[in-house]
Amino acid sequence: MISRDVYLEPDAPDPVLDPAVVLGFARRHIPVVAMVTAVDETGGEARAYVIDDRYVLKTQRPHRRRPRTNLQKEVFYLRQIATHAPELPVPRVLGSGQDGSVEYILMTRIPGTALKYVVLEGEARRAALIGLGRVLARVHGLPLAPFEQAGLVPGDKDAGDVQARIGQGLRQALDSMGTQAEAFAGDTVLEALPERLLGGGPIDGRRAPLHSNPGPEHTFVDPSTLKLQGLIDFGDAYVRHPCLDMRRWTAPGDRSALLEGYSAETEVDEAFLRTLRIAQSIVLMDIMVQRSERRQAALDDLRALITEC
Length: 309
Fold this sequence. Notes:
- By secondary structure, the chain is an alpha+beta fold.
- It has helices at residues 19-27, 71-84, 122-140, 145-150, 159-178, 181-184, 188-191, 193-198, 252-265, 270-290, 295-306, and strands at residues 36-40, 46-51, 55-60, 93-99, 102-108, 113-114, 208-210, 219-221, 228-231, 238-240.
- The strands form 3 sheets. Strands 1-2-3-5-4 form a 5-stranded antiparallel sheet, sandwiched between helices. It has a 3-stranded antiparallel sheet with strand order 6-8-9, with helices on one face. A two-stranded antiparallel ribbon has the order 7-10.
């Protein structure tokens, strides 16, 4: 389930655009914009030029172009949200275009700070993640047919694809754990993993349009009130099982809050929950094998998760 990025032009120059050029693009859609107030490069694949503290002109960074990232796809996704769920706190597309090698989206700016850079604990964290869960449920409830017909959004074609992808990811994760048998010898929880995860009912095969990584770097909160402000960056979207948008929130409290919000907007049955537990177990097993400094925290989360199986 872990995809490896291939960058198409790793040696391409990556200049920061002159403010006059940025404003020229923006004025094609909003003539009255005045100045570039910040340049945000924390996104990795994209660069965001903040204009008048109200708008964002997003460009793809040439050396970080990859097949799964597509600005046209992001425009399409955001316009689907604007049509079917306009109340959701996501950017609104104001215009897009291409000039030479520069492709861009002009959109509204989600205020606040990425959760990644904010200390968010206790009830404030729970409230923000309940809100995020509600947003994800509404996003996953968008009509699927337009995403399949647009030719922009890749993903699983049917329930069989979903089940095969998650099943393969689980088998690979269990095999990787097997290579570390000495490190985990005698741990009854880990020894019971294959039976717990492979037993029970079949993997759920439902599909939805996913954000792909609604994690702390893309979830924005108000740094003062700590309330959820919105979700950004839909450029890596794909169609797969909706639980994959939730798989990285593995801490018990985070998982509980996210599910509380999600289930407030849509039905969450046992098949969904079982598939989510499998997806999160894969993430945690990968961390335990690959990130020794995070092994104990991942094991603690995995213990809590397995007790639910």
